[in-house]
Amino acid sequence: MNGIAMIIAFFLVRIVTIPLQWYFNYTYWDQMFLAFHPFIVITGMMFTAILHVLNSYWMYKMIKGAVKHFGKSSKQKEK
User: Fold this and answer.
1) Do the Cβ atoms of 14 and 55 come closer than 8 Å?
2) CA distance 7 to 29
3) Which residues contact 78 (CB under 8 A, 6 or more apart)?
4) Residues near 3 by Cβ (< 8 Å), separated by ≥ 6?
5) pLDDT tens digit at each of 79 positions of the chain
6) Which H, E and C letters describe the chain, residue by residue?
């Protein structure tokens, strides 16, 4: 049960917020370049993209593990 709660919380906090974060990055793109050096803005965008890819991969691995776990338990019940 704790694993399911962790997957749901991870999804809501890390995956659902990805489009919102990129929306705000796009909306305030010009203001970021006025406030910071372009190198900092571009580096920040690259690190953000890398972290979003990692979060998506971890979510995939968690779901794959949960499916494997629950699939195994239902097969054991049939025997």
Assistant:
1) yes
2) 32
3) none
4) 62, 65, 66, 69
5) 788 999 999 999 999 999 999 999 999 988 998 999 999 999 999 999 999 999 999 999 999 999 998 887 555 655 5
6) CHHHHHHHHHHHHHHCHHHHHHHHHHHCHHHHHHHCCHHHHHHHHHHHHHHHHHHHHHHHHHHHHHHHHHHHHHHHHHC
